[in-house]
Specification:
By secondary structure, this protein is mainly alpha-helical.
């Protein structure tokens, strides 16, 4: 499940049950403006959200506190076990509130996603035709393509150059010359 789909499911659940009010928090940059953290969480840090609830906890009645507990349980039940394990030690034990859980989930997923993309880009750049057993072009290009597919919209714009450059390193002279000759065509295609 993606963070966007999870956000949609949580938002639908909150709105259906009328429990979305607690997910509106003051904008850290402009406290006069309320922001719905399910739609715009970029300004919020876990510390800000936890501290805000700690400072303003007395303004919530039992009904609101109960709603935040229910939303916590609903969101938590939708999470993958790996995400649960990684955020559980970070969460304040005394405040099982949906908005707090949400901001931790968003930060954890985005951080893991950023690290994964960085790792995949490094992997893509480190793939070498010469390091593939027998310089197997099919195996090399399959690994290259799979890594590009894993990167999705984060594929480096110079991926065709990386691929072409690697194919030009083949120890098989005819093959290498063929791809060296195609370098111009690749450059022109990418430039379009």
């Amino acid at each position: 499940i993606t963070i966007d789909l999870l956000s949609e499911l949580v938002q639908d659940h909150l709105e259906f049950h009328g429990m979305d009010a607690e997910f509106y928090l003051p904008d850290p940059q402009d406290p006069t403006r309320l922001v719905y953290i399910l739609e715009d969480d970029s300004e919020f840090t876990p510390n800000y959200v936890v501290n805000w609830f700690r400072s303003n906890n007395d303004m919530y009645d039992d009904y609101s506190t109960n709603n935040m507990d229910i939303t916590y349980k609903a969101i938590f039940s939708m999470l993958d076990e790996c995400v649960k394990q990684s955020i559980r030690p970070l969460m304040p034990r005394d405040m099982k509130y949906g908005p707090i859980l949400w901001i931790y989930v968003v930060r954890e997923v985005r951080t893991a996603s950023f690290q994964r993309i960085k790792t995949l880009k490094t992997k893509l750049e480190s793939l070498k035709l010469r390091n593939t057993k027998g310089e197997n072009v099919k195996e090399f290009t399959t690994k290259f393509l799979q890594t590009c597919m894993d990167l999705g919209k984060n594929v480096p714009s110079d991926a065709p150059f990386i691929l072409n450059d690697q194919l030009c390193t083949s120890s098989v002279e005819k093959f290498r010359i063929k791809f060296m000759a195609r370098s111009t065509a690749v450059n022109q295609w990418v430039a379009k």
